[in-house]
Amino acid sequence: MSRFWSELVGALTPYTPGEQPLIEQLVKLNTNENPYPPSPAVLDAIRGQTGASLRLYPDPEASSLKAAIATVFGLDAASVFVGNGSDEVLAHTFCALLKHERPILFPDVTYSFYPVYCGLYGVAYRNVPLDETLSINPENYAADNGGIIFPNPNAPTGRLLPLAAVRRILDLNPDSVVVVDEAYIDFGGESAAKLVPDYPNLLVIQTLSKSRSLAGLRVGFALGQPHLIEGLERVKNSFNSYPLGRLAIAGAVAAIEDEAYFERIRRAVIASRELLIAGLASLGFEVLPSAANFVFARHPERRGGELAAALRARRVLVRHFRLPRIEDYLRITVGTDEQCDTLLQALAAILAIPA
Ligand code: PMP
Fold first, then answer.
1. Cα of 86 to ligand 1 centre, how many Å?
2. Atom 8 of ligand 1: nearest residue by CA position
3. Which of 154, 178, 205, 304 has the fewest CB atoms inside 10 Å of its own CB, making it the most exposed?
4. pLDDT score at 119
5. Is the CATH code 3.40.50.740 the one for domain 19-37+260-352?
6. pLDDT digits (tens, 9 = 90+) for 260-272
């Protein structure tokens, strides 16, 4: 038992999720959830499920959801994979497409789940440093590699890589699978999904957790040419034939189909983000340009960890990472305008107290 523990389980370094407090009355700007509820059509679709239907297993292919997603992106259903949140889609991607004898590449400042999947599946990796503006430079992705993954916009920086730069990484790496994790793309970026027909090595991953306000339903998906999707299906079917339950499938289809609601919420979050950036700048923060539903900011005279703790004492949660290069930054989710005002007022009060 002790050998098992130390050699297998003890060697894993799991991802630490952002805090999900059980008490209410907090301004929760720490895990990039959408401040608005999902489309009312989602709740109607979930309520429309019956006891007779829930008695039965769901469709293992989630065909209705794949068809709805395929329609939005102008692809065939054979180019769509769905899973239990994009975290699960990512996990299957590391196992099916990125497990390689040569190291895979991802940025040194990025989604902290990537090294966790590498640890779990025994994937070697090499971090590619962001440039001095904390941006991805496509020319740094030319080295021999076993695959490439990066979020676009990157997390936690919020910085966007223009589609031409994504294309450059693909062109530099025709023999590697290139995975673009687009969890936040709907808040200001151009999706690489339109490149799928041209690039047999491209996999695009998206989620319903952010722009569709469905973090609680756990639905994510991948878009790629059928041979890549087939790889993901094989791993999924070796693991869990039914990753999505009937409630998740019904709710997700309704969310994908309600384009008008999606547009409205997306625009509201983008407008609030611009107000938040202006408010932080007026308090003296340096704020990176953001194409996401969060901003990444630091104050030239204050430590990030201290600001996060002081905000917490005022019942405002933001995310702080104790990591090299970014330890003075706060990652702040865009809330409603009212939530953003509460945050800005709390920060103004904290900054008025001498450090
Ligand atoms: N990718 C990135 C870059 C993220 O920040 C997140 C959210 N933490 C995810 C994927 C996973 O999101 P979900 O599992 O909710 O789809």
1. 6
2. 31
3. 304
4. 95
5. no
6. 999 999 999 999 9
pLDDT at 246: 98
- Residue 266 CA to residue 168 CA, distance in Å, equals 28
* Region class of 205: left (phi > 0), else alpha (psi between -120 and 50), else beta: beta
Q: Are the beta carbons of 121 and 95 closer than 8 angstroms?
A: yes
Q: Which residue has its alpha carbon closest to ligand 1 atom 12? A: 86
Q: Hey, where are the domains in the chain?
A: 19-37+260-352, 40-257
Confidence grade of residue 72 (pLDDT, cut at 50, 70, 90): very high
Nearest ligand 1 atom, CA 90: 10
* In contact, 14 and 116? CB cutoff 8 Å: yes
Distance 2 CA to ligand 1 centre (A): 34
pLDDT of residue 21: 76
CATH number of 40-257: 3.40.640.10
What residues flank ligand 1, with Cβ below 6 Å? 85-87, 111, 151, 155, 181, 183, 207, 209, 215, 220
* pLDDT at residue 236 in the model: 96
For ligand 1, the distance from its centroid to the CA atom of residue 151, given in whole angstroms, is 9
The pLDDT value given to residue 11: 75
Question: Which of 33, 94, 112, 181 should be mutated for ligand 1, with most atoms under 8 A from CB?
Answer: 181
Name the residue among 264, 280, 266, 268 with its Cα closest to residue 340. 280
Question: Which atom of ligand 1 is found nearest the CA of 86?
Answer: 16
pLDDT tops 60 at residue 96: yes
d(CA 19, CA 325): 22
**ipTM for the predicted complex:** 0.99
Nearest CA to ligand 1 atom 1: 183
* Residue 191 exposure: Cα atoms within 13 Å on the Cβ side: 21
The string of pLDDT tens digits covering residues 138-158 is 999 999 999 999 999 999 999
- Span 276-300, mean pLDDT? 98
